[in-house]
Amino acid sequence: MTNFAANVFFYEKRKDHLAKLTAICDSIEGFPLDYTAESLLDIELLYREIEKKEKWSIFQTSKEEFEEMMFVYFGEVVIESLTGAEWVIAEHPLLQGEQVMGIEYNAYAIYATAGFEDLNDQPLHHLFYEYERFTRRKAM
Fold it and tell me: Distance between CA atoms of 57 and 80, rounded to whole angstroms?
């Protein structure tokens, strides 16, 4: 895949994931996506609640797709909050010729091959802590 094609592919993927996540959150009263760091706490709690009850089908999604949507939303929050943060595309570290999407800020990057995978293996507020790691980066 060419660099241009990868950029278009991942742009469309981000757009689709944000639209679906917005629709899910709009269906829950009092749960708007406002692209603040604090909203990452709410998204993570929603994920954990759906996972605990195994109710992915209610929102016509899968756990894996929701994890991808969370990563995209996380990236948009970072980019909205931090001047200079941006989406980047890089070669997959294990699969030659495959690209992966990530967020970069001041020479620090986080890439996701499949979104935030299984947050139940992470401490509570993992998304917010990852956001804070970005904010602690000094301007270069």
Answer: 30
Supply 97's token pair.
Answer: 């010729």
Give the strands of the sheet with 86-91, arranged side by side.
86-91, 99-105, 108-112
Q: Model-level pTM?
A: 0.90
For 29, which DSSP code? Answer: T
| pLDDT by position in tens, the chain (length 140) | 677 888 899 999 999 999 999 999 999 988 889 999 999 999 999 999 999 999 999 999 999 999 999 999 999 999 999 999 999 998 877 777 788 899 999 888 888 876 777 787 888 999 999 999 888 876 55
Our measurement of the distance from residue 90's CA atom to the centroid of its chain's CA atoms, rounded to an integer in Å, reads 16
| Residues whose CB is less than 8 angstroms from the CB of residue 12 and which lie 6 or more positions away in sequence, other chains included | none
DSSP string, 59-86: GT--HHHHHHHHHHHHHHHHHHHSTT-E
Distance from C-alpha of 112 to C-alpha of 51, rounded to nearest angstrom: 20
The residue ranges of DSSP E strands in the chain, in sequence order, are 86-91, 99-105, 108-112
